[in-house]
Specification:
Length: about 400
Amino acid sequence: MQRQRGVLVNLSPPLPQELIGEIIDCLHDDHASLRVCALVARAWAYCAQSNLFRTRLLTNSEDLKRSEEWFNRNPHLAVHVRTLRINLAHEHYEWIGSVPRCLLTRLPLLQALHFERVEWTTKAKNTMDISFFASLAECKALRELSLDKCKFATFRDLERMVCVCGDGRLKKLSLDLVTWQDKQSTNLLEQQQLTKQLSGLTHVNIGRNCSIEFMCNWLRQTPACPTLHSVEIIDITQKNELKAVSELLRTVGHSLEHLKLSCLPTLVETAEAFIQSIPQHLDLTPLTGLRSLHIVLTDLEDDFLRWVPLVLDKMRAPLLKRLKFDVWVKRSHRLDGKAWKALVKWITGLKGVREILFVQRGFARVEEAKFWLETGGLAGLGEVLRYEERRIGLEGR
C-alpha cells in the first residue's frame, strides 16, 4: 500500500482469478460470508454468486413463485444454478407441472434435477402433459436425474421422463423408493425410439423398493447398458432379483468400474434358501475392469453376513483399488463368526488395493467401531485401512 495525494493505493498485483475462486469456494456453506464477498469487488462477485446460487430448493408453490420473480429481476444469476431440488413433504402437487415452464427454461446451465416425494398420478391431480416434457427437453445441460420417494401413474411415464431428460446427454440416473401403479412398458418400436436417448448414461443407482428385477431387465435393453461405468443396487431380497442383477452385470461386463451392492432377505423362513442361491444366481466374474467396490452390511451377525464371502470369493478384479463397506457396528459387538472370518480372509488377501474404507452408520461411535473391527482381524491392514462416521442422527443415508 502507498499513499498518493492523501489516498491509499494498492500497488501489489491482483490475485489470479483462479486463486480467488479457490479461496471463496471454501465458504460454500457460509451464505452470510458469501453475500459479503459478492459486494467486495467485481472479481469476487462471480465466484461468490456461483456458490450462493449453485443449488436451489423448492418445497412449495411460494418457493416457486419467489424463484421465478427473482430470476426475472436478476436473469444474470440464473447461469449459476447447477442443481434444482424439489422436495414435497406437506404440500399439494398441482403446482409441480408449472416448474418446467416457470423455472427450468430460465436455468440454461442446470446440470442436476432432484425430485423428492412428488406424485405424478391422477389422485394427486398432477399429470404429465406435452408441455411438461417439452420444457424438460429444453434442459440441454442436464446430466443427472434423481427421483426419491416418487410415484408415477405408469412405468411409461417414468420411462418417458428419463428419456426426455436424457436425449443422449444424461450421465447419472438415481431411483430410490420409486413406485408406479401400472408396470406396462412401451412397445418395442417406441422403446427403440426412446431408449436411444439414453446412449450417454454411465451411472445408475437402483435404490430401495424399485422393482429391481423389472428395472434391471429394462436397463439391459437400453444402448447404455454395455457402456455403464457405475452401478449401484440396494436391498436385493429375492432369487429372481439376484438373477436379474447378475444378467445386467454380465451384459455390462468389463466396462464397469464401480459397483455397490447390498443383499437382505426379508423373510426369516426364506433367508437360508436365498443365501444358498447366491453362488448360483449372482456372478461377478465378468467384472474384470472393476476398480471400486462398495458393500452395504446392514447387519454383521453371521446369518446376514454369509452372502458377502459367497459373492466375493468368485470375483476376479485385478484392477480393484478401492473397497468400501457401510457397517452398522453395535456397542460391545464382538466379531468372531464364521462368515466374518471368511470376509476378513478375503480382504487381507487382496493385492494392490490402495484404500479400504469402513463407514460406521450404527449407534456406536467410530472409535468403538474401529476397536471391534480391528479386534475382529483387520488390525494388520496398515495405512490402507480408514474409517468414517455417518451415524444415524448425524447424517442421512
